[in-house]
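To assess whether ligand presence alters the predicted conformation, the chain was also submitted together with NAP. Input:
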Amino acid sequence: MDSDYSLNTLFNLEGKTALITGGSSGLGLIMAKALIQNGVRVVISSRSQEKCGLALSALQKFGDCTAITANVTSGEDRRRLLEEVERHFGGLSILVNNAGANWGAPLANYPDEGFEKVISTNLNAVFSLTRESVPLLKKSASAENPSRIVNIGSMDGLHVPVVQRVPTFAYSASKAALHHLTRALAVELGPQCITVNAVAPGFFESRMTDYIFEHYLKDIEADCPLRRIGQEEEIAGVIIYLVSRAGNYTNGAVIPVDGGTSVSKGAKPWDEG
Ligand SMILES: NC(=O)c1ccc[n+]([C@@H]2O[C@H](COP(=O)([O-])OP(=O)(O)OC[C@H]3O[C@@H](n4cnc5c(N)ncnc54)[C@H](OP(=O)(O)O)[C@@H]3O)[C@@H](O)[C@H]2O)c1
């Protein structure tokens, strides 16, 4: 009974460093703020210089943040990004693979280039950036304090999404594959003191969900057992847990943060008929 279970010890993130891809908006921006507010030095990256600049000015008032413009699907950009991260931090304790893309179209018109774009952003680029980040993650890793990789998957990789009525074949396939890649990498990298987990969010407000919420918000809320979309702090909480001491032994997990939507299959409680 000598262990210290105080929140300050269990969730203390001081001294850690993080790279968050797609950190310039939406869930990436929320996770960046959550980590920075808790003492993590963070690099955010995305393709748009303008979005990176706006995010940087919003985040810098909370602590240590740097923004680097990079396209995760470009090998040259990833090399430059990791060189910058190494120059800034020496090593890297947290990699959040969050950058993502979607494409919705009926099957008959679903273009190959749309399918390829989604798979290359949501899956191929995550694999490449992870492989290329391992040397930096190893530098910061120890058995007592493993380095972390957190992949942002989706509840759409856990079930077949129908509520928005716009088929997103590549998206759900890419996220299901990302969840399984997470498990394979957890087995591979665990012995090197790097944990690999995925978060599978339900619906949260972002640029990606603007159109869907405009047209289908009521159906989305009705489809969720909690009858609502997710709130910012519910993403902040799960990332803090996964990269904290409390999360040291969680490895190979895919954690749904979706109010139970992916397990409900549209089911209603008995008394609602
Ligand atoms: N919002 C939700 O309800 C929800 C639910 C489940 C899962 N997710 C996942 O959460 C992650 C973030 O999405 P979001 O909802 O926050 O949408 P978002 O606001 O559109 O954010 C996507 C981010 O990724 C960046 N990005 C896109 N393609 C990129 C590329 N090739 N290289 C580098 N950065 C790129 C975007 O910035 P640039 O345009 O500047 O590149 C942006 O910062 C995605 O993986 C998404 O699948 C979201």
